[in-house]
User: Fold this.
Amino acid sequence: MVMQKKQMLADALDRTGCGKLLRLAPSWRGVLILNYHRIGESRHSLLDRNLWSATTEEFDQQIRMIMRDFDIISLAELGPALKNRRSRAVMITFDDGYVDNYIEAFPVLKTYNASATFFITTGFLDVPQVPWWDEIAWMVRTCRLPHIPANPWTGGPIPFDEPDREQAIRRVLAAYKLLEGSSTAEYMAVLADALQTGRAPLHIGHELWMTWPMIREMSQSRMFFGGHTVNHPILANIAPEAQDFEIGECRRRLMQELSQPITAFSYPVGGEASFNMHTRDMLKKHGYEWAFTFIGGVVPNRRLDPFALQRAAVESDVNRPLFRAMLSLPQLFA
Assistant:
C-alpha cells in the first residue's frame, strides 16, 4: 500500500513537471547514496530475484538521469561533499561482488565517466560459493513438494505462491535472518532435507562472482572498493571475536589484492538490527572510516554518523518516475 501511494505521487510529480523543478531547486542538501546489488535480467533465475536492481538498459538510463542534474561523486570525494553545506551529490554503491557488476554495470559507468564503490564479500571471490540467500531461493524454486513442510525453524507449512514462489522465499529468508550465527548451518541443512532438494550445486557459485583481476582492472578506472565481510554473516548475530575476523580479514584481503588503503565498509543486510556496538568497535579497530547501512534517506551534512551512513535501495520495481522522484525528493521516496 505504501509503495502504491509512492508510485502514484511519483507519477503525479512526473506529469505536472514538479519533479523537474524539485531537482533543480535546493529541495534537499547532503549526499544521496544509492545502493545496487545486481544488474541484468532476473526473470528466469532460480536464485534470489530481489537482488537484481535494474536491467542494463535501466541502469544506463538511471546514470543518465542522475548526471543531468547532479554530480556523481566517488568514495574519495565523500568527505569533502559532506563538509560542503550546499552539496547536493549522488554516490553509487554496489554490494556483494556479483560478476554482473563487472560485465554489465562497469561498462555503463565507464561510458559516462562515472565512479562507483563496490563492497566486496572477499570469501566469495577466494572460494566461490552460492550465498545463503541465493541458496534458499534455489531450494524453494526447485522443490517438487506442494509446500514447505512444517518444521521447528519456520513453523507450520508454508504454501508455495506460484509461479514464482516469492512470498515463500521471503518467509524462509526472514527466519534465517533471526538466527544466531551458530545456528545457520544447521538451518540450511534441515531446510535442504525438508524440501528434498539437497544443497545448491557448487558450479552455480563458480559463475556468480567477480575475480580479483576484474577488480584490479576496475580500480584503475576510478572505481573504488570497500569491505563487506568475508562470508556475509549478519554481524549482530555473531560473537564479537567472529565479527573481528569478518571485518579485519576482509580488509586485509582487499588491501593485499589492491595494494591500497581500504577505508569503507557496508553492513551485510544493513538494517538497524544488523550491526551493534561491537561491530562499530571492530570497524574502528581495523581502520575503517566509513560504514554504510541499508537504511534509506539522504546523508545530511550535519549530525553526521560516519558508521551509519544511510543508503537508498534501488530495486527492480523502481520504474523511471519513481527513480526520478527519489532524486527529486529523497526525504520521501528514498
